[in-house]
Design goal:
715 residues, alpha+beta, Hypothetical protein af1432, Beta Polymerase, domain 2, four-stranded mixed beta sheet, 28 helices, 20 strands, 15% strand
């Protein structure tokens, strides 16, 4: 455990004008506040904040940050208050301690919403001062170093997984490579001990081999000679890749350890940027370059500020070798990330660096998220992915996670561009929106006004920003449609009893369901979580406050009730939102239909003769009388399914598709169910306007000689 004077001396060694008095007072304050508290390791609890402060000194952070490290647990675990800390150490330290404290329960078992809120608070505090995150990472690093002292294996696993899914990506995002590597290794040891031991054993075996050692020495010697011969002053070193990095690569490539040729990497550190490219030229002039292994992160830095040149060569001894080339300053940033900037920006310590725009973007995502799994998903997707670099038509660089599509690109340019996206061109060629981007692609987004995101985009986008925006739109529309549907269903249920519906009456029932607004009641009914008939029975039987009005005496009002008694028009409600068309019978406008209220899905529409309805025979409360709103159905395409038998003749399929096209239908799916020497039995999904349109296509298909039979599918 580091001693008080050692801690102070460390800070004084790199910070001019270090606040020695504040450091000493924080040391004493923290020690006295934690008193006799003991960690699970048996050490005094005070050893933890002291070690956290020690880790922060290794990053050469300022006095306020070190003081925060000493005090970070005092408000959470002792009787100390933020006001007390503010009075003793100033507003800057108090703000940092408060930011770290608010996240403390992220490490504990808590309800999903509480966990999200804690994570949001961390990001908010980080957006104001990046040092909050640095202290939290140091805190987590020491906790991981002492993870083995926790007796509960379940708790250890939870902490390790949280570290791998939340804190490692955050460390990666701010360029803290050393901390990231150690956190990964510690979490890897806990979660996958067998895999870790296997890789470590294999690495130790390779090191023990004299031949392997000779090869590494030979490579270093040869590279050094060739670079120095050109007058370059270099630092050359070889490093072994981390076990977790090797394991991930094995998983990604589905390869055995023996198949990996790049478990060693060699690093060339030079003085200036121009010398990086000079060194690259020397390397490529003397050794064959491995195609696809060259990456220039100097001209196109990673989003975490990482800059370096990576190249793969067939090096000395015909060994496939990875080379990294960077300056001394780049090397510092590569190891210490954002912490390295504090050595150059002492005067602006409390200003959040411009590089932290990602924090604000992630905060925007979390503002519209209530699912803990979504939080993890966005954190991993947005922060912990290899990148591809693409360009706008104007030449602006857009960095995206590997696997990103044109829709991800559109949202990265601007949220409104993503919403209005209707097409895309890659390198001048029109492509589907789900096309995956490659390094160097020039992407042009085609937009249309007004634009709305398509729900199906969520199935292929990979960035958190795009996924969040699409989900936000879908949820907003769904809630709106559910409320409309719920209001219509409740109105109809009241009218069947001969009563008018008013919000005043409905408000009297809200307390029974734990609701505050009538719209919440509509929403729950529309979602299928509450039955309209139950609400009506509750109110009618109770005659809440005598506020119900019977409508038998008024002709005009009876006409209003008669309108309610009609079936609910389902068109105008967006398909896939509150209303879903059953895939078993594929209902079309013109068909006689019935709705089945389904919890969490709203209403599922079936044809009246659908065989699936038999399963709901004993649940009449879930049946909803609905009809088509023909006036609004004209502009919408529906899918009808045909079952047909096609003669196995040359040109038969061409004849089939031609007839469908000539009759303004569009085949969206074709499936061959059975094939014999003479015939094909197939299912055909066709976009049509209504059942009349589908019947016209059926009649036309029956008129061609290659079609033996064609009928509309009912299942």
């Amino acid at each position: 455990m580091i001693r008080q004077f050692e801690l102070v001396d460390r800070v004084k060694s790199y910070e001019i004008g270090a606040n020695e008095d504040a450091l000493n007072r924080a040391y004493v304050f923290s020690m006295m506040a934690h008193g006799s508290q003991i960690r699970e390791s048996g050490d005094p609890y005070f050893s933890h904040p002291l070690e956290v402060a020690g880790i922060l000194t290794e990053l050469k952070l300022d006095s306020d940050t070190i003081v925060t490290g000493l005090l970070h647990d005092t408000v959470e675990d002792t009787i100390a208050t933020i006001e007390e800390i503010k009075g003793l150490f100033g507003p800057s330290v108090a703000r940092l301690v408060d930011g770290v404290t608010k996240l403390s329960k992220l490490e504990q078992k808590s309800a999903g919403k509480h966990q999200i809120e804690n994570f949001r608070k961390l990001l908010l505090a980080t957006s104001r001062d990046i040092r909050v995150l640095l202290v939290k990472l140091a805190d987590r690093l020491h906790n991981m170093r002492t993870l083995g002292f926790i007796p509960s294996s379940e708790r250890r696993t939870k902490i390790a997984r949280e570290t791998l899914e939340i804190f490692v990506p955050l460390a990666e995002r701010i360029g803290m490579q050393r901390i990231k590597d150690e956190l990964e290794d510690l979490a890897f040891t806990e979660l996958y001990p067998d895999a870790k031991n296997t890789i470590v054993t294999r690495l130790e075996f390779l090191k023990s081999q004299a031949v392997e050692e000779e090869i590494i020495v030979s490579i270093l010697k040869e590279l050094r000679q060739k670079l120095k011969a050109e007058g370059l002053k270099i630092d050359l070193s070889g490093r072994e890749k981390q076990p977790y990095s090797i394991w991930r690569k094995m998983q990604r490539r589905n390869a055995e350890f023996a198949q990996l040729s790049d478990i060693m990497a060699f690093r060339i550190v030079v003085g200036e940027i121009k010398e990086c490219y000079q060194a690259l030229g020397i390397i490529h002039r003397n050794y064959p370059c491995v195609p696809g292994r060259f990456k220039d992160y100097i001209s196109t830095p990673k989003r975490n500020g990482y800059r370096s040149i990576h190249t793969g060569i067939i090096g000395p001894k015909q060994r496939r070798t990875e080379i990294q080339i960077r300056t001394h300053q780049m090397h510092q940033v590569a190891d210490f990330g954002v912490a390295a900037h504090w050595q150059y920006k002492q005067e602006n310590r409390e200003e959040a660096p411009s590089e932290n725009q990602w924090v604000h973007e992630l905060l925007d995502i979390l503002e519209h998220t209530t699912d803990p799994d979504e939080v993890i998903e966005h954190t991993r997707l947005d922060l912990f992915q290899e990148q591809v670099f693409c360009f706008t038509p104007k030449g602006d660089l857009i960095a995206l996670p590997r696997g990103a599509t044109t829709v991800d690109f559109a949202y990265e340019v601007h949220s409104e561009v993503g919403d209005a996206c209707v097409g895309a061109k890659i390198n001048g060629r029109l492509v589907p929106l789900r096309t995956v981007l490659k390094n160097g692609d020039q992407v042009e987004i085609v937009t249309s006004t007004p634009g709305v995101p398509a729900p199906e985009w969520e199935g292929f986008v990979v960035t958190g920003k795009a996924r969040s925006r699409i989900r936000r739109f879908v949820r907003s529309k769904q809630h709106s449609e559910y409320r409309r549907l719920g209001e219509a269903m409740l109105g109809k249920a009241f009218s069947e009893k001969g009563y008018d519906i008013t919000k005043t009456v409905l408000k009297t029932t809200l307390g029974s369901f734990g609701m505050k607004e009538v719209e919440e009641l509509y929403l729950s009914i529309g979602q299928g979580n509450l039955m309209a008939s139950i609400i009506v029975d509750m109110i009618v039987m109770g005659e809440k406050g005598g506020k119900l009005t019977h409508k038998e005496e008024s002709v005009a009002e009876n006409a209003k009730i008669a309108n309610y008694k009609k079936s609910i028009p389902i068109h105008g409600l967006i398909p896939g939102m509150a209303v879903h068309y059953a895939s078993c019978c594929h209902p079309l406008p013109g068909d006689r239909i019935i709705g089945i209220q389904t919890p969490g899905k709203g209403v599922v529409v079936h044809t009246n003769d659908c065989e699936t309805l038999e399963s709901f025979h004993e649940m009449p409360e879930r049946w909803v009388d609905i009809s088509w709103d023909i006036s609004s159905a004209k502009s919408t395409e529906f899918v009808g399914r045909l079952e047909l038998v096609l003669a196995n003749q040359r040109g038969g399929l061409a004849s089939l598709t031609t007839v469908v096209a000539n009759n303004l239908g569009n085949i969206v799916n074709l499936k061959i169910n059975n094939r014999t020497t003479d015939f094909f039995e197939m299912s055909l999904d066709i976009e049509v306007k209504d059942n009349k349109h589908l019947n016209e296509i059926i009649a036309a298909l029956r008129g061609i000689f290659v079609v033996s039979s064609v009928t509309r599918a009912k299942q």
